[in-house]
Amino acid sequence: MRLPRVLRTASFRLAATYTSLFAGSVAVLGAFVLWTTRSALEQQMTSRIEAEAALLEAEFRSGGADRLVAAVHERSRGAHALDYRVQDPGGRQVAGDLPAAESGWSEVSTTGRSAGETDDGERVRVLARRLPDGTLLAVGEDTGRIEEATEAISFALWWALGLTLALGIAGGLVLSSGFLRRVDGIARTADAIVDGDFEKRIPERGTQDDLDRLARTLNRMLDRIGELMIGMRQVSNAAAHELRTPLARLRQQLETALAESQPASGVELALQRAIAETDGILDTFTALLRIAQIESGTRRAGFRLIDLGNVADTIIEAFAAPVEDQGKTLRGSIAAGARIRGDRDLLTQLLANLVENASRHTPSGTHIEVGLVATPTGARLWVADDGPGVPAEEHERIFDRFHRLDRAREGVGLGLSLVKAIADLHGAEIRVEDNDPGLRVCVDFGGAHS
Amino acid sequence: MKILIIEDDAATAAYVANGLKQVGHRVDHAPDVRGGLVLAVGHTYDVMIVDRMLAGLDGLGIVKTIRGTGVKTPVLFLTALGGIEERVAGLEAGGDDYLVKPFAFSELLARIDALARRPPMATVETVLRVADLEMDVVKRTVTRARRRIDLQPREFRLLEYLMRNAGRVVTRTMLLENVWEFHFDPKTNIVETHISRLRAKVDRGQGAELIQTVRGSGYMLRAPA
Which of A113, A234, A251, B86 has a CA between 20 and 30 Å from the CA of residue A131? Predict the structure, then answer.
């Protein structure tokens, strides 16, 4: 079972641990308070009973049993009356209503002593003393007050414990959701960077706390990575650019030489081949520079609302005939109304490259389908074939620069890298799927970035 | 034809100038911005070839300045940059066509030809004729020797482009850009396939072939001599 995210945060776990430790302390403290209160109350009760017994004993000494009985009657009516029993040497009860008790301290239970007090089994603490003439004097006090007091205190303590736990958990939730928000902020930033928005930075609050310091450190790291990436890109772009100029001159010289060569001679053939090779190299540099240019993201400024159905129709119409000449079919399953913001020229090239890829790597008799549907957030475009397909472990790598499944084939593997760069520019997700049989490349224009 | 080249790379300038002279054009070359402006404003040319990246001033700036003085000479931009923004910016600045370095010389020649003979604005013909081939651009009909030919919309555009440039070489790239609006180089032989299908409709069973292949350059539609 998965806990809600807020309960799985480190800060919530910390808060929960701290709360349970604190609640444990509250419980121990409460037990101690309860125990000391109870023993203090019992101590007071003992003293009161002993004092009362001493007082009544003094009455007996000054006036005998009659004086004692009179005193008991009088004290029973008093405001702070305890419970009493006077028993003559014959064992007959002559005053008070306590039940019979042995000499010394004991605890007895009484039945209701007066009308209205119906609850029986009330515990009474009793001190009984045998007086010199054999009379038994017993003085007792109901322990109910102590029970009530301890009950009230333990009730308060349980509440305190409950509130401690509740407030601790609530506080933990508040703290962790604040923490979680900031961690989420960092995660969102990281995701945006993964998605290609290299300018994104983690928000800093300027509070100098540990999360803020972490954010600042991460931002510095991102800045540094960004500088390195720009440096790398500039170097590779400059290299491609610098090499283009001498290659262009080489091509010019070859063409000049070709113009002056003997028609249909071996030299002419060699020069034509050399020009074709040079064109191949130049094509590669052009494609690399184009990918770099697309990845720089500057094209986004020119995005317009594009009817993808129109783009797809143009491509199908242009490629159907050459594909048919190769003994394959190209057909469309194009839904109307799929519009996205984008660059028409680049989207045309994306689809053209996907169709060319499908037709180049499949045998005669293959059916190629271009599909388009509108989705709630944008559009889904796909090119599927029923050819031999691509092993699943290669699916992710087919977009890598210069990656070719079949090394023996002609051409450099940049067409699909270009497709990926164009899809990324449009914030589209690109997936390679098994078409069972064959391959299906699916481009989801989500609309999130565009 | 009288052609002005504004190009600071001496090797490219010599290559272009020599090539153009060989086919009979007269060529002036300015190696920098100032010389280019002086020549462009002071003389009359049929076509100007301007490098997009010149030391000192962007080639765009030159063309804007030249256009500002009322000179309407067609301008072909040369560039080492193949980006589409570059092309759009060049056309917006007043350029008429755009060629990415390096280029085959035949490509340059074909484009200069097309630019120089571009009809003046607002006099676009609506009925095109080459030999016994006739196209009514408004009614969207094509006939060869009075027999009607049914064409797909794209085939119609392809034939229209060939007919408007009748007698001149049009390259594969020019067709991709103008007929399909593809500003990239597909590895598939789209142009070849569509030309051969168009030929089957226009030329098959006719005495003379109007659509001709110019080896190493492109295609040309012209009346048989």
Answer: A113
